[in-house]
From TrEMBL:
The active site is at H260. It holds the Pfam family FMN_dh. GO terms for molecular function: FMN binding; oxidoreductase activity. Glyoxylate binds at R174, H260, R263. Signal peptide: none annotated. This is Alpha-hydroxy-acid oxidizing protein. The keyword Phosphoprotein does not apply. Belongs to the FMN-dependent alpha-hydroxy acid dehydrogenase family. Keywords: Flavoprotein, FMN, Oxidoreductase.
């Protein structure tokens, strides 16, 4: 007798697609909180451009390539990633799910990759590392006066690298939040801002981020502070070859090509549009993480083929978190990775380092 076939697609999963997860997040969150997540700065030209940029590329099929089981494993700064997808630092995470980054880190650990733990999150660096030490490897901080003390604290907590956000001297001009008179409980951004040695006050950090005219650092300030860091650091928020070169001159070991998901300068260029020229400027060796607009496995493929070493997901992870906590984030990582693996087979790429621009063609060509 013929063996029974499973159904063509899994029928028992909570979420069949990433779109379903997005919709579930929208249903789970109050409208002003969902706007805080979804929104960008200004007229949201950059927010839209980040998505549109992916539509201008096509992946070339490679029939009969013989690739059956492509490997999504790679490594960044000595950290092994089973899938080339990290989760982004995002503040206020308990607004999206009570377990916030604790849930994100657990899900990320399940998938053998790394989460970038935020300074302005609802839980402390130490709490998140305690629940998922294999995933909580990179911690984000802002380049303000307290940075050397925070870097020291992050190192003591056992992290492997720092991520310094260089594109956020003040918060962007977030029009949806302004229209909503958005007034979240600021304690949800305060997981790292109380008590512990070296912790800046809430007023110090948010005074900087929320009020115009705060003293912002320049590259020299950052280089001097970074000279005291004992961990390698990644500059997050690089959108031009010039900023990439300045980051390296200040001592960065890697960069995140990012426009902060369209939440800071608007109109700024799409992150994907800037990626190839930044890769060309810094050469093939520098680890480049990429974020802003990743929503599907094909986006991951395109970013890697255009020069990224790995990608970082912000909103896509938040959708999973809001929809179903750790299980939701895990499903997002699973769907992104499954699609990436499928595309690798169809395009004949056996490994992540085989993804390059020779596999793509511009949509207009
Ligand atoms: C709700 C929210 C909060 C964020 N908070 C921070 C933050 O505290 N620090 C930071 O460097 N980036 C922050 N980001 C930006 C993300 O780290 C990341 O750059 C961005 O979300 C990537 O774009 P994507 O959402 O399209 O994936 C935040 C993003 C969102 C959506």
């Amino acid at each position: 007798m013929t063996a029974q076939l499973d159904s063509m697609y899994p029928t028992t999963v909570d979420f069949g697609t990433l779109d379903e997860i997005h919709r579930a997040a929208g249903a789970a969150l109050p409208a002003d909180v969902f706007d805080f997540v979804e929104g960008g700065a200004g007229r949201e030209i950059t927010l839209r451009a980040n998505r549109d940029a992916f539509d201008r590329w096509r992946i070339l099929p490679d029939p009969m390539s013989g690739v059956a089981n492509p490997s999504t494993r790679t490594s960044v700064l000595g950290m092994t990633l089973e899938t080339p997808i990290l989760t982004a630092p995002f503040g206020g995470d308990a607004m999206f799910h009570l377990d916030g980054h604790l849930a994100v880190a657990r899900a990320v650990q399940r998938h053998g990759t790394v989460t970038i733990v935020p300074e302005a999150g609802s839980y402390s660096y130490e709490q998140i590392r305690a629940v998922a030490p294999e995933a909580a490897r990179i911690a984000q901080l802002h380049p303000f006066a307290h940075a050397p003390a925070v870097a020291e604290r992050i190192q003591r907590a056992g992290y492997s690298a720092l991520c310094v956000t260089v594109d956020c001297p003040i918060g962007g001009f977030r029009t949806r939040n302004m229209a909503n008179r958005f007034a979240p409980d600021m304690r949800q951004f305060g997981g790292n801002l109380t008590g512990t040695d070296g912790a800046p006050g809430v007023a110090e950090v948010f005074g900087q981020l929320l009020k115009h005219g705060a003293a912002a650092w320049n590259w020299t300030d950052l280089r001097q502070a970074a000279a005291q860091f004992r961990l390698p650091w990644i500059a997050k928020g690089v959108l031009t070859p010039d900023a990439a070169e300045r980051s390296l001159a200040a001592g960065a070991s890697a960069i995140v090509v990012s426009n902060h998901g369209g939440r800071q300068l608007d109109p700024a260029p799409a992150s994907l549009d800037m990626l190839p020229r930044i890769r060309a400027a810094v050469g093939p060796e520098l680890p480049i993480l990429f974020d802003s607009g990743i929503r599907t496995g094909s986006d991951v493929f395109l970013a890697l083929a255009l020069g990224a070493s790995a990608v970082v997901i912000g909103r896509a992870a938040i959708y999973g978190l809001a929809a179903a906590g750790a299980a939701g984030v895990s499903r997002v990582l699973e769907l992104l990775t499954d699609e990436l693996r499928t595309l690798m087979t169809l395009s004949g790429a056996a490994t992540i380092d085989q993804l390059d621009a020779t596999r793509l063609i511009g949509a207009q060509s």
